[in-house]
Amino acid sequence: MHLSEITDRIEKLSEQYAEVYGIETSAQWALLKLTEEVGELAQAHLTATGQSRDRGRSAEERAQDLAEELGDVIGMCLVYARLQGIDPEQAVADKWFRYEGDVADPDAPPAT
Which of 34, 37, 41, 95 has the fewest CB atoms within 10 Å, measured from its CB? Predict the structure, then answer.
């Protein structure tokens, strides 16, 4: 499955959520929702790594919670990108991949 297909499915679910709860979606809403999800990811991380109380959850449940919260963050990033007209694959490629080859290989012979 391609990222655009995943985004389509998440966007439909997001629209259903907004309809059920009477929310008008916008880029601002998506960004605030993303911020909320990052906070939940941080809490799940603290719990999963033993830096917070375990909330009566097993290690496996805490790991699952962490994965699900990461999924929420990624999902809301995709919703935000769609609402802003940003191609997330292109955005990642433009931002990250331009640096490929910038880091010197410590095992490479010195340049002459």
Answer: 95
As a whole number of angstroms, the distance between CA 73 and CA 92 comes to 16
How many other CB atoms are there within 10 angstroms of residue 36's CB atom? 13
| CATH assignment, 9-95 | 1.10.287.1080
Rounded distance, CA 107 to CA 53, Å? Answer: 45
> What pLDDT, in 10s, does the model give residues 84-108?
999 999 999 999 999 888 765 566 5
Structure tokens at 50: 């033993």
pTM of the predicted model, to two decimals?
0.84
Q: Which residues contact 104 (CB under 8 A, 6 or more apart)?
A: none
Distance CA 23, CA 90 (A): 29
Residue 52 φ then ψ, to 5° = -150, 165
Per-domain residue ranges for the chain?
Answer: 9-95
